[in-house]
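From the methods appendix. Each design record in this collection lists the tokenized structure first, followed by the designed amino acid sequence. Records were kept in a plain field format so they could be parsed without special tools. The example shown here is representative of the layout used throughout.

RECORD:
FOLD TOKENS (162 positions):
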């Protein structure tokens, strides 16, 4: 497909192969068929470790940011892998958090909007329920905390005194 990098930008995804994009006129829905790039495949959804395949799973959709007024989703296989530590889990995807139904770009936009605008603005603009806003904020915040912990760990490294 041509203009792949344009589609990647529009859909806000990285490390993702865009196989094709179609427009479902009845549903007014843009469906981008995607898959992780080779390096991103066969990784545990929890820890990201490369793991042997378990089964092909099924097709799944993730809500992406709207393109103008048109709703957009990514559609991809969601195979399962057998992680040494986490057992059989859905493989990680480079465009969304584990177990999330929305892309990173969607999550981040909702989390930011929730701090900047009213409840009705977020839910109407993003076309999601308030409950969904809550779970998105929870998972974005969990990531922020994980990052903070890593930085805190860095500070605990003894400084080199001369
Ligand atoms: Zn794992």
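DESIGN:
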């Amino acid at each position: 497909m041509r203009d792949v990098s344009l589609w990647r930008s529009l859909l806000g995804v990285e490390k993702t192969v865009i196989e094709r994009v179609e427009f479902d006129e009845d549903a007014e829905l843009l469906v981008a068929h995607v898959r992780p790039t080779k390096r991103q495949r066969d990784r545990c959804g929890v820890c990201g470790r490369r793991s042997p395949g378990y089964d092909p799973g099924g097709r799944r959709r993730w809500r992406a940011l709207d393109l103008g007024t048109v709703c957009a989703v990514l559609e991809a296989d969601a195979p399962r892998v057998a992680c040494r530590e986490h057992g059989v889990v859905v493989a990680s995807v480079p465009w969304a958090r584990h177990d999330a139904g929305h892309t990173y770009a969607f999550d981040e936009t909702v989390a930011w909007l929730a701090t900047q605008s009213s409840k009705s603005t977020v839910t109407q603009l993003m076309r999601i329920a308030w409950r969904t806003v809550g779970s998105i904020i929870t998972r974005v915040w969990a990531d922020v905390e994980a990052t903070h912990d890593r930085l805190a760990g860095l500070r605990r490294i003894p400084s080199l005194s001369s």
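APPENDIX NOTE: The beta strands are 16-24, 29-36, 53-67, 70-83, 87-90.
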